[in-house]
Structures are given as C-alpha cells and as structure tokens.
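Run log // design_07
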C-alpha cells in the first residue's frame, strides 16, 4: 500500500486517545448511518439537502478540519486493512472495507455540501473512488463467502491491487480538494479590499499550514507566498502584518516557499519592515520569525541566501535593536533566534555584531529574568556567543560584560519541567557554553577569570557525572575540550587523578572512560 500524503495525520495521532475517540464519535456514528442510507439525500431539493446535512454555522476552516479528520480516519483504516489482509483475516478485512466505503461516501458528501463549485476533474475522481470502493467491498464480500484456500489465495492479489488503487484515488482526491481550497483562499486574499475578509482568509490559510509540510507545499505552489507578501506591501493592511508574517514563516519551512520568497524579493520586504520604526513590535517580532525560519541551519536549500547577504547589515542591526528593546521573552526569543541562525552562515555577521555592541546587549538581557526567561532563549544567546568567540576581539567584550560568569551559570542549566524539548535545550546550553569557554580560553585573561569562578570543578563534575549532563555525549565532549584548554592555562587547578583520566589521555580515551563511569563515583 503506497504511503498517503495526509498532512493532518502527524499531529492527530499525538492527541490523547480518549479525546481522539470523543472527537471521532460523531464521524463514526455518521458512518454507521451511511451504511443504511448509502449516501442518498434526505431531500430532493439541493439547498434543503445542504442545510440538513451540514449546519451553516461552520466556517470554511471548520469544514476543512472536518475533511482532514475524515481523511485521517480513512488513511488509518486503509493501513489497517493492509495489515489484516497480510494475516488473511478476511472477516475483519471485509468489515473494515465496508466502513471505509461509508467513510469515503460521507467525506465526499460532506465536502460537496459546503463546496458548490467543484471542478469536473474532482467529480471524476469522486466517482472513480466511490466505484472502486464499491468494487473493493464486493471483492471482500466474495472472499468471506468461500473457505477454499486456493480460491482465497488467487483472490488476495486482486484485493491487494484494488486496495492500492483505492489508496491512490483517495490520495489524488485529497490533493485536488486541498489544492482547490488553497486556490479559493488565494483568490480571496488577492481580490478583496476588505480587511475583515482578508483577515479571515489569512487565518484559514495559517490553520492549513499547521497541518504539515505537504499542505505548505500546496499553498506555496498556488502562490501563497506571493499573495502574502503583496499584503505586506500595502499600508491599508498594516494591522494584518503580524498574522500575515506568521503565516509566511510557516510556509517557508518548505523549499517551494523559499523559491517563491526569492522570486518576489521577500528578503528586501522583510528588511524594510524590520527597519521601519513606525511598525509595531509585534510586526517586527513576526518579521524576525520569518528571518529565523529562512536562515535555519537545518535547511538543506540555501539558494535564497545570496540575496540575504545583500541586506544582512540592515537586518542584523534591526534585530539587535529588537533584542535590546524587547518588551517580552517571546519577542527576545524570536529576534535572538534570527541572529543565532545568521551567525552560522557568514562570519561577517559576527563582525557586524561586534561593531553594534551586541555582546554587551545580549549579556545585559540575560540578567533580566523577564526577558531571557527560558532555556530556549539562553540557547540562542549562547549560540551567538559561541559563534562570535572565534573572533579575537570577542574576549575583551566577554570580560567587560561579565560574560564568563554567565557561561559558568549556563554550565548548571537544568530543566525544571522534565519536558523533552526543554531538556534538549538545556543540553545545548551546557554544550555551547563549554564550547565558548574552550574557544575564549585561548586568551589568558578569560582563562584566569574562568579558573577563579571555579569552572574547572564544574567541568570535571559534568564529565564524571552522566546525570549532570543528562547522559549527553555532546556535552561530555565539549566539557573535555574546555577542561583541557583550561588545564593548559592553569595546570594547578586539577587533582592528579583528574589530570591522568581527563586531560592526559587521548580525547577519545577520556570520552570512553567517562561514558562508562558509574554514578557511584566519589
């Protein structure tokens, strides 16, 4: 069975099982009703039928969510049918096939009640899918009426083939539906002069982007990035800029979104927004979020970065100012994340940051617990410090801003909630603070300050105690490197056993020793 590109499946699976059942109960009971009604309308009048089957109180966004939930159920059922078929559970295969048949009919019926202008191509796929589902049900019904193993064996390949075709038609229909809905939203955004209608369309578009990368690709392909940047260039829609930029950040997680951004000079538009002081902080923050997204070091497509370099100085200057004037932790996080990403791909960014006294601004922000209030924010700050620490001038800035003290504190970073994402962020903070210390300790003044602040005992503790570093190998390697650098500058700061085990051997041997170390070590 080919994999189906159903964007809603990823986050729906993570919902609590009881909550999931409660949400699906209506859909399941509708399905059982469909077994009797076989998708026949209650009324012969089309308008009456529409009112009876689906209440008009639902918005387009609600209807799409219903469609995506139904599609997720069908996708899950098709996967389960393939599993039962593999085990020759014919009775289960047939009952599930009947259920899928009904769900497909319900989905098509529901969609047609709120979409009255479907294309001929869509109607053709609907008919193909319904016919193939009926054929599939008839096949499996014949299978449960025979006990002859040879006959069943010969029919199994036909059933498998039909199942694959049903999945293929279903995937193509969903693709058509989602493309059609994206086109409708694009049309509303491009043609409407009404702030209310445009806001509603952007809101629906943003909801779609949260359903996964596949939907973001469809939206980008249908001109979503172009339409949204058009909004960002019209003063009459200024109140919609934050919402529009948030949607753009979501779409630009896929390569197709990046290509569109490049075509419409999106980076220049973002630079204009960031440097325009008449915009609200919320608008600046969301523009920073787009910058953070398109400069992510995890992206494999970087064609857009050539035009980014042309505007980098303006953008970096605006982002530093946003960090300095941030009124909340969220704004600081978005601005600092953008800066952190920028420092990865060009050393010129680090030089610009030095000229702008960014080190002093970031270190000052870390002392304000209202602004730098999470491990995620500290992760961004220490990333910038680590990348800037390759520059020789950075050491004096760190000393003046009491940065060694901050790096020492970051070596103690621990999660308060136990949340896996927060734990991972804490590990990154520990690792990068150790990396920064190692790089900066080539300067005797920084190394001396680190020794006086008892960095060496803390690094030894992180190396020897797996729980202190949450069993992170990357933290261990960084701490070993930092410890060795400080040991060169201050050899008297280590016990002989620490020197013999953590400094003198090859790095890989010390690493293996520490990873095998028992927690009972004294």
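design_07 sequence
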């Amino acid at each position: 069975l080919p994999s189906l590109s159903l964007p809603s499946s990823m986050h729906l699976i993570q919902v609590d099982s009881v909550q999931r059942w409660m949400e699906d109960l209506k859909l399941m009971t509708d399905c059982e009703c469909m077994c009797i009604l076989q998708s026949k309308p209650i009324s012969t009048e089309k308008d009456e039928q529409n009112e009876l089957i689906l209440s008009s109180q639902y918005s387009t966004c609600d209807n799409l969510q219903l469609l995506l939930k139904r599609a997720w159920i069908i996708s899950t059922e098709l996967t389960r049918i393939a599993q039962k078929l593999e085990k020759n559970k014919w009775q289960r295969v047939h009952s599930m096939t009947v259920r899928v048949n009904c769900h497909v009919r319900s989905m098509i019926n529901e969609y047609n009640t709120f979409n009255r202008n479907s294309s001929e191509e869509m109607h053709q796929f609907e008919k193909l899918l319904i016919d193939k589902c009926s054929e599939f049900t008839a096949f499996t019904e014949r299978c449960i009426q025979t006990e002859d193993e040879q006959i069943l064996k010969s029919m199994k390949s036909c059933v498998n083939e039909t199942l694959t075709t049903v999945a293929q038609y279903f995937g193509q229909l969903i693709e058509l539906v989602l493309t059609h809905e994206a086109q409708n939203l694009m049309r509303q955004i491009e043609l409407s002069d009404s702030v209310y209608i445009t806001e509603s369309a952007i809101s629906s578009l943003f909801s779609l982007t949260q359903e996964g990368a596949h939907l973001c690709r469809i939206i980008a392909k249908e001109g979503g990035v172009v339409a949204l940047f058009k909004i960002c260039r019209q003063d009459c829609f200024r109140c919609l800029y934050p919402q529009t930029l948030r949607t753009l950040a979501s779409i630009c997680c896929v390569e197709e979104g990046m290509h569109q951004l490049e075509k419409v000079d999106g980076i220049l538009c973002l630079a204009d927004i960031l440097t325009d002081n008449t915009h609200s902080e919320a608008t600046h923050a969301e523009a920073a979020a787009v910058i953070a997204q398109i400069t992510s070091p995890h992206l494999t497509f970087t064609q857009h970065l050539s035009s980014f370099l042309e505007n980098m100085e303006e953008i970096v200057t605006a982002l530093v100012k946003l960090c300095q004037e941030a009124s909340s932790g969220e704004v600081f996080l978005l601005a600092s994340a953008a800066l952190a990403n920028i420092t990865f791909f060009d050393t010129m960014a680090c030089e610009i940051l030095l000229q702008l006294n960014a080190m002093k601004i970031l270190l000052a922000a870390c002392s304000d617990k209202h602004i730098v209030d999470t491990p995620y924010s500290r992760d961004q700050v220490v990333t910038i410090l680590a990348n800037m620490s390759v520059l020789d001038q950075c050491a004096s800035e760190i000393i003046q801003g009491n940065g060694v003290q901050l790096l020492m504190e970051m070596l103690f970073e621990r999660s308060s909630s136990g949340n896996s994402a927060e734990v991972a962020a804490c590990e990154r903070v520990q690792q990068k603070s150790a990396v920064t210390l190692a790089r900066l300790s080539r300067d005797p003044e920084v190394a001396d300050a680190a020794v006086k602040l008892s960095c060496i005992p803390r690094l030894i503790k992180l190396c020897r105690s797996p729980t202190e570093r949450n069993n992170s190998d990357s933290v261990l390697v960084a701490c070993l490197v930092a410890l060795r650098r400080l040991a060169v500058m201050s050899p008297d700061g280590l016990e002989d056993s620490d020197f013999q085990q953590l400094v003198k051997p090859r790095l890989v041997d010390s690493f293996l020793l520490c990873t095998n170390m028992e927690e009972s070590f004294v």
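The first helix runs from residue 9 to 13.
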